[in-house]
Design brief:
- The protein is mainly alpha-helical.
- Among the domains are: 46 residues; 47 residues, no CATH class.
- It is 36% helix and 5% strand.
- It is elongated.
- The N and C termini lie far apart (147 Å).
Length: 185
């Protein structure tokens, strides 16, 4: 008796642990045929979808697409920045200008530095902090309260009017002259 093609191609392989497995048989012609048919169906669907899009655009915009807005391409429209953050250099330029002003001194007029540079100001603060503090002023002598006798062995403290000559009185204006205004003093 003659063996069929499947029986001739089939061969059972027995592994070392007694596990039996049959060799794989691929019919390559059928696999290629299914792939080609799938690609053809995809291509027909893509062309059909593209034609639907073109006809819908013509239906909704018979005169063609509208013109581009005039504001397109500007840095800011309304209050919304239109550029990507990675491409926007405005913040970097602003910060660089501020750092340059701190390093070089700054002022109200261009080219005139009204204030010292930040490095020089920081050095000055550090130098002032390293100086010893000034000595405290001498403490004033305590004065006794009015009506109390001074402590024994000490003279009474002079009052503000004692020891100073009285201030001269301003001269009286001559009769018939206008009195001086406070701005003339």
């Amino acid at each position: 008796m003659k063996k069929s093609q499947v029986e001739q191609e089939s061969r059972v392989i027995v592994g070392a642990h007694g596990v039996a497995a049959e060799e794989d048989h691929l019919v390559l012609g059928k696999v290629v045929q299914v792939g080609v048919i799938s690609l053809l169906i995809f291509a027909v669907g893509a062309v059909w979808g593209w034609r639907l899009l073109v006809s819908a655009e013509r239906e909704f915009q018979p005169d063609g697409p509208p013109p581009k807005p005039a504001a397109l391409g500007q840095y800011e429209i309304g209050i919304v920045n239109q550029r990507l953050f990675e491409q926007d250099e405005h913040a970097v330029e602003k910060l660089d200008g501020q750092h340059a002003a701190l390093q070089n001194g700054w002022g109200d007029q261009p080219g005139v530095a009204a204030h010292m540079p930040i490095e020089q100001a920081m050095d000055r603060v550090i130098a002032d902090a390293q100086k010893p503090p000034p000595p405290p002023p001498p403490a004033p002598e305590p004065t006794p309260a009015p009506g109390k006798a001074p402590a024994p062995g000490k003279a009474p403290a002079p009052t503000p009017t004692q020891g100073k000559p009285p201030a001269p009185a301003p001269p009286a204006p001559a009769p018939g002259t206008p009195s001086p205004t406070p701005a003339e003093h």
